[in-house]
Amino acid sequence: MSQIRICLKDFLGDQAGIWTSPLRLRAHDALWLVPLAGATAASLYYDVQTLQEVGTSPNRVRISGDLSNVGAYGAIGIAGATYVIGKVTHNERARETGVLSLEAITDAGLVTEALKLATNRERPNMGTGRGRFWPDDSDIYTTSGSFPSGHATIIWAFSHVLAEETPGHRWLHLGLYAAAAGVSVARVTSRNHFPSDVVVGSAIGYLTGGYVYRRHSDSYDGSPAAGKFTVSPVYDAATRSFGMGVTLDPSVLHSTHLKQLWSGN
After folding, report:
1. Are 140 and 162 in contact (CB under 8 A)?
2. C-alpha to C-alpha distance for 108 and 4, rounded to whole angstroms
3. Is residue 29 classed exposed, middle or buried when 0-12, 13-18 and 19+ CB atoms within 10 A define those classes?
């Protein structure tokens, strides 16, 4: 019972810290905020065109949908299994990794669902297919809206926590972020989401995962670590394409300022 109270207290504290994070923004936060805002604006502008170019191949839509479901829901299952294994084997690191992964997924998921309600955006296969926000004015509220992507939120929150909890395993981290990027892209190619939904959902998940790790992990010492991966949305104006950039050993961009995002400091 005490463990449940601790988890509830942590969750409420996380939500308070996340929702009040805009009040703690500083000038140096432009290092991550400006690129994110630019990627979101660009994706919003080309959302409809991108979905038109993706096409409606039934096989691609089905396979992409299956892959994205396996990735997102598999992450939840792995997080839960990691906690159980750690608890049974008295492996504190594994137990903590499982707990923090589930906590990050829950925190990020609540933020995503709140934004879905606030934006009430049509999915690509609804209405005119143009991803309208509040198409029926305020008559209908839905938690199944398109903006942002819940699958992207889940996989990026999980991947960030797991990467932080396993220092020194660079190939594992690269695999985690590659899988997260794959799930994000699959949400577009399955025609479940527009690119902007995925960009924002991925950012929410990644940032929340980092916040939960910094706030609750026993292994976090408050200092930036060398040799980590930095993940950022990428937009190529020449080809009008979107993606995720993964940089190894980002000695310039991976600063203390970035580490403090949503930290409550």
Report:
1. no
2. 19
3. middle
Backbone angles phi, psi at 229, to 5 degrees: -100, 140
| Cβ neighbour number for residue 241 with a 10 Å cutoff | 13
Phi-psi region of 247 (alpha: psi -120 to 50; beta: other; left: phi over 0): beta
What are the residues facing 121 on neighbouring strands?
Answer: 133
Residues 213 and 160: beta-carbon distance below 8 Å: yes
CA distance 139 to 148: 20
Q: What is the pTM of this model?
A: 0.82
> What is the token pair recorded at 33?
């905020």
Q: What pLDDT digit, counting tens, does each position of 99-112 carry?
A: 999 999 999 999 99
Q: What is the chain's alpha carbon radius of gyration, rounded to the nearest angstrom?
A: 18
What integer pLDDT is reported at residue 190 of this predicted model? 95
Architecture of domain 47-259: Up-down Bundle (1.20)
H helices, E strands: number in the chain: 8, 2
> Does residue 233 surpass a pLDDT of 80?
no
